[in-house]
Amino acid sequence: MRFFIRKRRSTPTIIIVALIDVLIVLLIFLMVTTTFKQQSALKLALPESSQSEKAGASEDAPLIVSIDPQGNLRLGQEALPMTLEGLRSELSARTAKNPELKLAINADKAAPFGQIVKVMDAAKDAKIKAVNAFTKEVAK
Fold first, then answer.
1. Which DSSP symbol is given to 40?
2. Quick one: which of 37, 59, 72, 119 has the most CB atoms within 10 Å?
3. Could you list the residue range(s) of the whole structural domain that residue 53 is in?
4. Residue 118: inside a domain, yes or no?
């Protein structure tokens, strides 16, 4: 009589190093293919313009003043709340640091026009030479 001798099987193992490599490759792929878009803190309905231009990537980023439909002012990408007098002093201080400062007005189409004019006057008082306004292209 011949008895069959069983071979002991080794327990299955998972090679963690290979899984980590695959995970790192996926992470790098997602980071490279993801586009990073800055989103503004305020949701504004921009006015339409047939002459609107896209800003170039090589230009210096302008200082942004946002005006909401109620006429409230906010300064910069952080959307810091400002009064008109505070805006005047801030523009003067920033112009003293950078004489080539550019200002961009990001106003809602329902914003009071008087507030937009006051911001433009504050920019002129601070001796800012370039003042632009954000618009969106006319839908075709």
1. -
2. 119
3. 48-137
4. yes
Per the CB < 8 A criterion, the answer to whether 103 and 131 are in contact is: yes
Nearest to 55 by CA among 128, 130, 4, 120: 130
CA 111 to chain centre: 21
Which tens digit of pLDDT belongs to each residue from 64-84?
899 999 989 998 888 889 899
Contact assessment for residue 90 and residue 96, using Cβ atoms and an 8 Å cutoff: no
Please report whether residue 11 resides in a domain.
no
CATH number at residue 87: 3.30.420.270
Query: Which tens digits make up the pLDDT trace of 125-135?
Result: 999 988 888 77
What global pTM score does this model have? Answer: 0.59
Number of domains in the chain: 1
Rounded-to-integer distance, Cα 102 and Cα 67, Å: 17
CB 69, CB 111: distance < 8 Å:
yes
pLDDT band at 138 (very low <50, low <70, confident <90, very high): low
Average pLDDT (114-121) is 91
